[in-house]
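Lab notebook, bench 4. Still working through the backlog of constructs that have no structural model yet. Next entry is a single chain of 760 residues. Request: give me the structure tokens for it.
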Amino acid sequence: MEVQEHKFKVIGTRPIRHDGVDKVTGRAKYGADISLPGMLHGRVLRSPHAHARIKSIDTSAALALPGVKAVLTSEDFPKLAAGVVAMGELPMNPRYLSMNLMAQDKVLYDGHAVAAVAATSSHIAEEAVKLIKVEYELLPHVQNVLDAMKDNAPILLPELRTSGTPEKSDKETNIASQLRFARGDLEAGFKAAAVVVEHEFDTAMVHQGYIEPHNAVAQYNTDGQTTIWTSTQGAFTARDQCALALDIPASSIKVVPAEIGGGFGGKIGIYLEPLALLLSKKTGKPVKLIMSRADVLRATGPTSGSHIRVKMGANKAGKITAAQVWMAYEAGAFPGSPVGAGCMTALAPYDLENLQIDGFDVLVNKPKTAAYRAPGSTNAAMGTETVVDELAEKLGIDPLEFRRINGAKEGTAQPAGPKFPRIGFLETVEAIKNSPHYQSPQPKSGKGKLKGRGVASGFWFNAGFQSSATVNINTDGTASVVTGSTDIGGTRASCAMIAAEVLGLKAEEVHPVVADTESIGHTDMTGGSRVTFATGYAVYEAAQDAVNQLKQRAATLWKAKPEEVVYQDGAVSRTTNGNESMTLKELAGKLPRAGGPVAGRASVNPRGVGPAFATHVVDVEVDPETGKVEILRYTATQDVGKAVHPSYVEGQMQGAVAQGVGWALNEEYFYDEKGTLRNAGFLDYRMPTCLDLPMIETILVEVPNPGHPIGVRGVGEVPIIPPPAAIANAIYRAVGVRMTELPMSPPRLCKAIAEKSAKK
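Model written out:
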């Protein structure tokens, strides 16, 4: 199965991206660019309250406004039963999905959709939304996981019961589920420790911060068929969720994926698509809905805030003897936080005999959370990696050497039990240790500024899932690659390069296409760092299928047996007659006389996923007077398997670091005492800009994944895991304060420094 590395001619090069011209000239069609004849424009009315009962909704004034064609409320949605439905490998509760799309008897967070309007212009729709009168009965709200877990907490969903408990309970609760991973003897492990470190951590809810807001255009036809254009991370996922929420056949919905202006996990779920579909059905016209930035922040899925407790012990030799982690993650208003992923990744970089990890999925009056790059893992690493740093410090061991002593390798058991296949964690540690950055002198404090250096590591398991691909041979000897994977991080190029490698073509001679749900076989969402792995696997198999067909066509022309034909470097030749050969271009022109066109196809569900590890080092400068932290230098190293397009891999690493820096230092959802989001815009939701970041250095460690024919591992998620912990460790080295709350904003850091001074 494996393609030997010495044979690679396209893989590992850096061709210009295939969609580059479309992007820079504005020809690429994003969701908001879609415009259809007779199209109406929609707006959504959202709750101003964190928790309230809806006593009545009066839409008469809105309907009477000239230009208004329809108003939508929860009454227009089918009544769905609660329960878990399998959607591929992602379970989903249809009732909760529907309730999040449009509030039913209660609103559960500031920004919860209450009604929607379709009108002849966006301005009329906006005015109409203001005319809808909603009478609310305010209810107590809860926005902290620890408060939400108390017996006397306000209950969001009265029917909810905790799953995963040893004994069934009929008590109302906000704890949707709990889980535990444990092995060994914790008590004995802590007794064997020379040093024990224990801390509690809080991380704030943060948003993915994609530039393009959510959008959807739907056109419902009288025959019951619907077409939806939307910016989504998964056309099939969007189709199936719409079908589930509206209780209609998935085959009646065609989803056309638009170009996507960022997602990072936040555009896997649906928010506007079913609303646009129902409004189109009501009016008989296509309907477009676009979110404002405030709507995006208030009403789409951020990632969880969390409360984490970590206790770890190590002996004098630096070996971790025991580790205990307790984590409660915000699910938002409906179950589904990434606490399970947090539990499975928290201690994964380390070989541990004695561990216990407990996780709780907790409802609070905030938007239902969504995925955000390695969901759940960054929170967990903030706790575990800062405690690892403190253990190393107390034992007088270099933090990288401490990781080498305890590092996971092939055969090490993961926290959840399964053993690792071939992995490259120790190689990332070694790469940072030998990097010019780590080998450089420690940054020196001066002029009132304090400087420090910190390191941290991270793990993400990556995903496989289902993918389909078609490789078509054109009459001029070039090829097209058709897949169903939305291109967020350059996967058009990586898939084209894989096909080019197999076919012996240049990358520029392969044209990649992202197709709609009726033009390609089922393909799961772009997420989990799965596309170049799984869809690339499908492309590899489809290209091999095309090669086999080409050999058959050549055999027909030569009146030979297919097994006598060899395909290599973009040409066919006969093993029994060395004089006979044809280039792909020559053969392509003769296909009509040799059996017809060649279209290679493959559908896969690959299981040989390659886990990803990263280790980062950062230098910071802290102004103790203001609490401002400046990133002086940052180096990220990562086991990337085989870098198909190294520039894109480096870009994934750099982008994730930038997001991790924002999460570490500034980004957070800020709610007031009424449960209202007060920073629902990029002016107040502070993301880093180019002025806040240095040039981020990258080191690619290539430990090929044996489960993939090219050696691919997913690369997009693991680099967001180490930054907050690495920065926290660097801040400690600078000012001597262990920060345990994210973000480590200037006010929080100033307070911590002042408290340290007061103790002295």
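Notes after review: The chain has a mean pLDDT of 96. The first helix runs from residue 20 to 25. Flag for follow-up if needed.
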